[in-house]
Amino acid sequence: MPGDVGDTAGPPTLRGLLASLVGAVRSRPPAELALVALPLPSLLVGVSLLPGVEAWRLSLATEGVFESRWALWTAFASSFVHTDPAHLLDNVVNYWLLVAVAYPLSVVAGWRRRLLESVATYLAVVPLVSAWATIVALGGLTDAPTAGFSDVNSALLGYLVAVWFAALATESARARSETPLGVDPRWSVVAVFASLAVVYLVPSGAGYFPPLPAVGSLFAVGAALAATGLYAAVGRPRVAGLDLTPERELLYVTGASVAIAGVIGSLVLVPFGSNVFAHLAGYVVGFAVPFVGVLADGGADRGGG
Fold first, then answer.
1. CA triple 37-183-265, angle to 5 deg
2. Which of 220-224, 236-240, 265-269 has the highest mean pLDDT?
3. What residues form the membrane-spanning segments (predicted)?
4. For residue 289, what pLDDT is reported?
5. Are 278 and 150 in contact (CB under 8 A)?
6. Better pLDDT: 301 or 173
7. Coil, strand or helix at 242
8. Which residues pair with 182 in a beta bridge?
9. Residues with Cβ < 8 Å from 186, sequence gap 6 or more?
């Protein structure tokens, strides 16, 4: 989190955590905080209040995203429509939870601009990609409508994995002059491949998404190959001795916890009726967009601001 608040010795206290949070919030321009926290939830609430918005849900009887202008519109607009207030509240709360950790990590990594650019890309691309993935997987099996912002939230989950490693790489770069520390942000691809392996190997709560051991094994092999290649090229991640404040350490623990819980809750142990294919599409796109920037930056050698 921006700014080091608190003593590096001893565990974090409630007072120290609150002081760190208040100090971090005060250190950021109010307009920037408002831009991250308010427009999208306001848009979702506003859309839910429009008359006849139920018709914007995507019908799985549609043969393709580009079948007609109406199909294209519902493929896009359905991501901003919700079935009921509880569904809307769930997605708004999940959005706030994700940006609450993704934003401070973006500040640490120098990714504030990349965060805004990534979100803009997600809003334009993810609804169509998730609609296409859903139609390919489930089209013709049912004519049930699908809707919800969870595909874009899943994209933010993918972004969180990328920025977590990027922020840690920035921390290690600051200490590298004194100790042989190092975390290359490209290690994030290993985490994503491993998470996708788990998704396809573990039974989910959605009966229409059974385990696919062959696909899961491919992702596991991909994770192993990526880890082997990165180990040979840049060495293993070395983070012990970064001497972060307890509050800053808590940011990384919280970020990792949100990412792990997000993968489990949206891709593994999901309730029946959840659109796992839309979540998967969003997660993959959400990670790929900032990861392209990481590759363009040349790994850990340059920042991503």
1. 45
2. 220-224
3. 93-112, 119-140, 152-169, 189-209, 215-234, 250-270, 276-296
4. 98
5. yes
6. 173
7. coil
8. 238
9. 165, 230, 234, 291, 294, 295, 299, 300
